[in-house]
Amino acid sequence: MESKTYTPKKLTKDEIVSFLQQEPSKTNTEWGNEWGVSRERVRQFRLRFGLPTVKAFDHELFGKVIAACENSNGILNAGLFTHIPNFGIRTLEKWMKENDELRRQVNRALKLAYQNAYFPTTKMCNSCETVLPVSKFYKSKFGRDKLMLKCKECDIKQVQYYYNKRNTPEVTVEEKKCSIYREAGILPASFFHRSRKTSTGLQYNCIHYGKAYSKWKNRFVKANSIENDMQRRAELNLLGDWKKKAYDEGLMNLKKDLDNIPTTVENQQVFG
After folding, report:
1. What is the CA radius of gyration of the chain?
2. CA atoms within 13 Å, Cβ hemisphere of 152
3. Which is nearest to 123 in space by CA: 107, 144, 105, 103?
4. What is the dihedral sign for C-alpha 105, 107, 112, 113?
5. Contacts of 145 (CB under 8 A, 6+ apart)
6. Is the pTM above the cut of 0.70?
7. CA–CA distance from 42 to each of 39, 88, 131, 184 (Å)?
8. DSSP character at residue 54
9. How far apart are CA 208 and CA 205, in angstroms?
10. Percent helix, strand, coil in the chain (nearest 5)?
11. Is residue 262 classed as helix, strand or coil in its secondary structure?
12. pLDDT over 80 at 24, yes or no
C-alpha cells in the first residue's frame, strides 16, 4: 500500500520527520519554501508528528543572546542577533513572553548596555588603547557618550605634534604659489609675509591679496556699521561686490610687481 503524502512534492510522514530531525534549527518558513507549503503547515506537521517547535529554549543559545544584548547600545532590535545562525528577535520575544525570568534577564542586560553606551564611567582611548575614567576625555558634540575618541593626553600630544610640524622658525622655500592667485604660477618668497604656522615659513596668500582684501573689507565694515538704514543700504550698494574688487585689485598689483622682476636670458638682464 502506497504511503500517504502531505506536500506537493509528495513527502511522506517518515520523510518529513527525517528532514525536520536532521536540521532542527531550520525555520518553518525555509521548510515551507522548500516543500511548497505554508509556514503554518510546517508548524502543524511538527505538532502532528510529535516534534519540538523551532528554537525550543536552549540555555547555551540564550547565553549568546544575553552577550549580544550586553554588547549593544541598549536598544533591542533584530540586528543584534545577525551573528547567531538561524535565530531572530521573534524567537527571543516568544521566550520572553513565556518566561518572566528570561524577560528580566534580557531587560537587565539591555539596561546595563544602555548605561555603558550613553553614560559610561570608563572608556578606551582609540589611540593609546588604555581604559581610563571618562574624566580623562574631552567633551564632544558627537557620539553616543558625547566624549572624544582620544584621551586628553593623546589629544594634547597630537595637537603638539602638528603645532611643532607647522612651527617653522625660518623660511624653507625660495618660491611658492599663492593659494588665491594660483593661475599666476610660482612667485618669489618675497611676495609673502612670514608665518611660523606653515611648513614653508610663509603665509598661504600673497601680500598683494592680503593688502587689497584688508582695504576693501574695512570699507565694507565701515559702510555696514552706518546706523541709518537708508544710508547704509546706499553705501553698500555703492560699494558693490567688495570681495571681487579686492581680488581684482590684488591681482592687478601682483602683475605689476611681476613685470618689475628682473630675469636673466642668455646672460642679459631683462624685465617683464
Report:
1. 37
2. 8
3. 144
4. positive
5. 117, 118, 119, 120, 123, 134
6. no
7. 5, 18, 51, 78
8. T
9. 8
10. 55, 10, 35
11. strand
12. no
Rounded percentage of the chain residues whose pLDDT exceeds 70: 91
In the chain, domain spans:
13-117, 122-166, 175-271
Cell numbers linked to 97: 513572553
Max intra-chain CA distance, the chain: 116
The CA distance from 250 to 192, in Å, is: 13
Nearest alpha-carbon partner for 60 in 84, 88, 34, 31: 84
What's the pLDDT tens digit per position in 213-244? Answer: 999 999 999 999 999 999 999 999 999 999 99
Compute the CA torsion angle 138, 143, 149, 153 (nearest 10 deg). Answer: 0
**Residue recorded with cell 523551532:** 54
Local structure of residue 2 (DSSP, 8 states): P
